[in-house]
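ARCHIVE CARD
Drawer: 12
Card no.: 0347
Subject: one protein chain, sequence and derived structure
Cross-reference: see card 0346
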Amino acid sequence: MTSFRRTAVPFAACALLLASGLAQAQSSVSISGLIDIGAYRDFDKTKKVGTIQRSNIAFSGSEDLGDGMAATFMLSHRFDADTGRVEGDGAKPFWHGEASVGLKGGWGALRLGRALDVISANYWAFDPWYAFNRIASPSWHFVEYNYAANRASNNGSAEYNRLNNGVFYDSPTVAGFSAHVSGSFEKSDGATKNNAGLSLNYNQNGVSLMLASTRNGWGDTETFAGAKYASGAWSVMGSYDQSTYKGTSADSKAKTATLGATYRLGQVELKAGYGRIDVDGVKGRFVGLGADYALSKRTTLYASLGSKKAPSLGASSQTAYGAGLAHSF
């Protein structure tokens, strides 16, 4: 015990000095994230305690460079709150969420590293659960996994949302309009093309619109269109997504349409979503219902229900339900 204390004191002092140095070197450094855990019956009828949404911790900061310029960084780690393990049990990188450094100014923001591609960085706005609920979100089930931004960047397995070795640009907003670009100058192992994507967005006076298209290094493509209108306690939204997977002998095409609505009543927000999918002529549907109760600005109790009939299930359907607690910081 004595040996541990003698070792721990110098270590703690070094950590404090390092933290102090970081604070002086940066104009601002922040720690943020979400811890989410719930009890639920999954679509395979098994009962589980675990993450229904996503748990993550992020370190971000910016340094004022003068003349309206700033340097930025972001490191985001994803984990399973029920076990404390890295999300995906090691199949994904440690900084799975994001690892980027960049510059921003009146001309927009430029980042280099690993981050969400243009569709994944923006399409969540057109889903009642922000494409962030494995039980109730139509986008999670019918849009999320149709297109892989990289077929092999998660230690050999597919990554559906993020680019490695990426270049990301977000324009300033002018009269509600903005443009977003993602791509890579470096080809991934096994890829024949460079990743490239563009999203055009509008957000003003309660109206949100999005039109985007992207292509990965294997020639797979995705096109997304979304619309949302919010007024008072209500919001209604919809999206259409089409993707093509370039196969060795034949291509596979998926088409998805979603509708959603939210209604806020005091501390309660009610949510409903519907989705349809067509994969090479085989159709499916999804229905999601939910309710969030805000205990505070940072802590939310929620209940979720989802029912799906997916192309992979044939004529059968599955249902999942559960409740959880999420705390943001």
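Annotation on reverse: The chain has two helices and 19 strands. Residues 34 and 124 are 17 Å apart (CA to CA).
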